[in-house]
């Protein structure tokens, strides 16, 4: 869940619309053009190749690439900046004005709901994907473009080459590759796609931690919290938890617990070890 906090901080700091938005969930376009009308709105499903330094730079939008080529992102939504044809191209200072028109447009065009909707998931999914909002280039702005767009990219913290189309991926046969799972222990872990051998799968819920609850240093202590997750696990799976899985909580380190206790509900293989599938599929 730390990834969401990082994303919100980034938006508030510098990638910070209301209006008519367009979102389409389905298959990405088989090919995308990088030229064409500079004023025209980007097409939903257009494939992109985002570099890591472009993910937090709305004034540096990635160009379109052919979807048959290596890519890591797709345009998921297009909106309007709310600025007129006589308005100058936004500066970096404009992006830092949190209640400004441009900052608001960039903040509103990319949302977590859009992310899961575009991938074909729901609010219990934690996609192995994220998003970045963009303005037109200066040349496109000079030609009259006033849109903002949201590009959804494959990867948890940074763009990675996508194994297939992002649109509708969580509803497809390879959904595990687009869902986030945890690699490590309840104390410290990394995040990767559920299609790779992993130790736990988050279910989109956390247990309530009463004030003063001591740090759950062992499995027995964690299970006292994990019992709260049973109903959430059933909702996540759409059925009762099978004998193949147990419910646990990932709690972080003792230092993390002292600064703000979080007990994130997860499913772990009942037999121990790792699995390379998603419990939800």
Automatic annotation (TrEMBL):
Q: What is this protein called?
A: Septum formation-related domain-containing protein
Q: From which organism does this entry originate?
A: Petropleomorpha daqingensis
Q: Which UniProt keywords apply?
A: Signal
Signal sequence span is: 1-18
Where does the record place the Septum formation-related domain? Answer: 45-260
Q: Does the keyword Signal apply?
A: yes
Pfam families in the record = Septum_form
Keyword Signal part of the UniProt annotation: yes
């Amino acid at each position: 869940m730390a990834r969401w906090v990082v994303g919100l901080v980034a938006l508030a700091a510098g990638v910070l619309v209301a209006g008519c938005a367009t979102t389409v969930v389905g298959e990405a376009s088989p090919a995308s053009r990088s030229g064409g009308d500079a004023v025209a709105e980007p097409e939903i499903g257009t494939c992109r190749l985002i570099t890591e330094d472009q993910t937090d730079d709305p004034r540096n939008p990635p160009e379109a690439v052919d979807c048959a080529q290596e890519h890591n992102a797709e345009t998921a939504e297009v909106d309007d900046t709310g600025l007129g044809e006589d308005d100058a191209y936004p500066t970096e200072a404009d992006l830092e004005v949190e209640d400004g028109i441009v900052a608001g447009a960039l903040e509103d065009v990319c949302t977590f709901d859009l992310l899961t909707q575009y991938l074909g998931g729901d609010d219990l999914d934690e996609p192995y994907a994220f998003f970045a909002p963009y303005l037109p280039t200066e040349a496109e702005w000079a030609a009259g473009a006033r849109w903002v767009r949201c590009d959804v990219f494959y990867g948890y913290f940074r763009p990675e080459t996508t194994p297939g189309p992002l649109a509708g991926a969580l509803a497809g046969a390879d959904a595990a590759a687009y869902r986030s799972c945890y690699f490590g222990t309840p104390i410290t872990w990394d995040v990767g796609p559920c299609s790779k051998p992993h130790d736990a799968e988050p279910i989109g819920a956390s247990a309530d931690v009463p004030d003063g609850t001591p740090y759950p240093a062992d499995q027995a202590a964690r299970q006292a919290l994990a019992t709260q997750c049973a109903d959430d696990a059933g909702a996540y799976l759409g059925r009762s938890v099978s004998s193949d899985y147990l419910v646990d909580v990932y709690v972080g380190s003792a230092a993390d617990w002292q600064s703000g206790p979080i007990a994130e509900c997860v499913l772990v293989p009942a037999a121990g070890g790792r699995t390379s599938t998603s419990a939800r599929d």
